[in-house]
What we know:
Layout (H helix, E strand, L loop, with lengths): L10 E5 L4 H11 L8 E6 L4 H12 L2 E5 L6 E5 L7 E2 L2 E5 L8
Amino acid sequence: MNTAPTPKADITVDGTGLLCVTLLLRLLKQREDAPPGAVVHVTASDPAAPLDLPAWCHMVGHDYLGPVLGAPLVCGIQLAAGTRPTRADAPWHPAPTACPRE
Length: 102
C-alpha cells in the first residue's frame, strides 16, 4: 500500500452529497481542459465512491492515487493521456466501438 502523500491538486471536484453517477459527470466536466498528468482531488461522500472511483480510473486509464492523507472523503486521481472513451451521457460505460465491416 502506498503511504506517500498524494500530490497537491491541480483541480478539485466537490462531490459532497452527490451519488457517484453525478460525481462522475461533474468530474468529467471539470477535467475537460486539464492536461495529462494533472492531479485531481475528489471529495466524495457516497459510500460507493471508494469502490467506484478506482474502478472508473481503471476502466478509462487514469491513475487512481488513493485517499488523500489527512483529508477524509478525499481521493486523488492523476489524469492520463490517451484514455479510453466513455459514453458522454453515462461515463461509467465504455463508449461503443465501431465494428469494421467485412
